[in-house]
Design a protein that fits this description.
heterodimer, A: alpha/beta, TIM Barrel, 2 domains, eight-stranded parallel β-sheet, 46% helix, B: alpha/beta, Rossmann fold, five-stranded parallel β-sheet, 5 strands, 56% helix, 12% strand, globular
Chain lengths: 265, 186
């Protein structure tokens, strides 16, 4: 499972304040904690700062990478902000995210075309939010083929089928996980990734529902997640679910996690 | 005489039975006791009840509480929060004109004018589309409409509402209903 640590996001109050105060130590602590907890990418987002986003995003990349070797997921729809941040990034970052919305597609495609960048492809278009497997596959098909035609390798594409809250329509969970299955069987070698906490919007005990949903999605082939790696129960669920899904030879990851205390709460 | 009392009876069912019940649901939702699916279920029950009442209540015997024009601003496709507010407004007896998502400022102005709206409610879920909220409120003010504007959505705050000179802000759907009532009464 590719884990994209989501905590350095300016829309979270403490992070927004740390960015504004240019408090490097506060940001670095969150980066190191996520690294130690098993994040493969550290997401950086400065989206609330209109006009200052490029400057702040660049500062976030430099600040994070001063204390970890992990690559960043550069979280912005603004090509200028992405390019400014990429200029100082060490290693290969992930771009979070391209979508089929025309403006976003036209802005981001030139950045990822012909590169080895990883890219999240969000199933959203100008026609609105997809609800069914068919809605999502129509968008995924155009996005993936567009990326391939622009010389982005299949293995660098992470399709996010877009989680919608189950509280407003009780088929939204099933439609999502069935899309995961369809994507991984349609496009060989592709990845999927999603921020799945939206599933539990409007319901109590959200963590419990998020953890259960993660397990269901892994069973259908989900292999990437934008999440809080400090959520120990979620991490334990992922490890157990991957073993159960046949993705953990000789249960080595499961046993390693057991021995390192990841199942002790 | 009999007919008069029947209408009074039906109005009591509408105002105290249906709208009153939805108010209770809204209150409990705001307090964290009820959750989104329960609010949806209550709204469906309300719709069912209205379906029975409406044919019995002759035209003109129930005054609408006023028209609310609602939509998600230009560039933003998120509709869940907006739909919840629209539903609660309907449940409170407002006539709701839902313009959908990705709505141009001019379209809000046009709909508010055409429907003689008392309130225009704007939704945005993205930080990047908050400026479109400002543009919409500017356009409404420029058109000189005597309509109140209210705003909401995940990144929206009271401070932002004040900054763009919206008449009100709420952080949930029942709160938006309360706000609309207060602004119309004022």
């Amino acid at each position: 499972m590719i884990i994209i640590g989501e905590l350095i996001n300016a829309s979270r109050k403490a992070i927004g304040a740390a960015i504004e105060a240019q408090d490097a130590a506060a940001i670095q602590k969150v980066a190191q904690d996520q690294d130690a907890a098993g994040a493969d990418f550290i997401d950086v987002n400065a989206g609330i700062f209109v006009g200052k986003e490029p400057e702040y995003l660049k500062w976030l990349v430099e600040t994070v990478q001063a204390v970890t070797d992990k690559p960043c997921a550069i979280d912005s729809p603004d090509p200028k902000a992405i390019e400014t941040a990429m200029a100082v990034h060490k290693g290969t970052p992930m771009i979070n995210s391209i979508s089929l919305e025309k403006e976003r597609y036209d802005n981001l495609m030139p950045i990822v075309a012909g590169t080895d960048l990883k890219v999240i492809a969000l199933c959203m278009s100008d026609a609105g939010m997809p609800e069914t497997v068919e809605d999502r596959m129509k968008i995924a098909d155009k996005l993936v083929n567009g990326l391939l035609q622009n010389n982005v390798k299949m293995e660098n594409i992470y399709v996010d089928p877009l989680v919608q809250p189950m509280s407003v329509n009780n088929s939204f969970g099933v439609e999502f996980v069935n899309t995961i299955e369809k994507i991984v069987t349609t496009f060989e070698g592709i990845h999927t990734a999603c921020g799945l906490s939206n599933i539990s919007y409007g319901l109590p005990a959200r963590k419990f529902m998020n953890q259960t949903f993660m397990v269901m999605a892994i069973a259908k082939g989900l292999d990437g997640a934008i999440m809080n790696p400090l959520d120990k129960k979620m991490m334990a669920n992922i490890i157990a679910a991957e073993a159960l899904a046949g993705k953990d030879n000789f249960c080595m990851n499961y046993l390693k996690a057991f021995r390192s205390g990841m199942f002790d709460f | 005489m009999v007919r008069f009392s029947l209408i009074a009876f039906l109005k009591t069912i509408l105002n105290e039975g249906l709208i009153g019940a939805m108010d209770e649901v809204g209150k409990k939702f705001s307090e964290g006791e009820l959750f989104v699916p329960e609010m949806l279920m209550a709204a469906q029950a309300m719709k069912g009840g209205l379906g029975i009442l409406k044919p019995l209540l002759a035209e003109g015997t129930t005054e609408s509480k006023g028209t609310v024009v609602i939509g998600t601003v230009k560039g933003d496709l998120h509709d869940i929060g907006k739909n919840l507010v629209a539903m609660m407004m309907e449940g409170a007896g407002f006539n709701v004109v839902d313009l959908g998502v990705d709505v141009e400022a001019a379209k809000f102005v046009e709909a508010a004018q055409a429907n003689k709206a008392k309130v225009v409610a704007l939704s945005a879920l993205l930080t990047t589309t908050m400026p479109a909220m400002q543009a919409t409120i500017d356009a409404i003010k420029e058109a000189g409409l005597a309509v109140k504007t209210i705003v909401g959505g995940a990144p929206v705050t009271q401070a932002f509402a004040d900054q763009i000179k919206a008449d009100g802000y709420s952080d949930d759907a029942p709160g938006a209903v309360e706000l609309a009532r207060k602004l119309i009464a004022a």
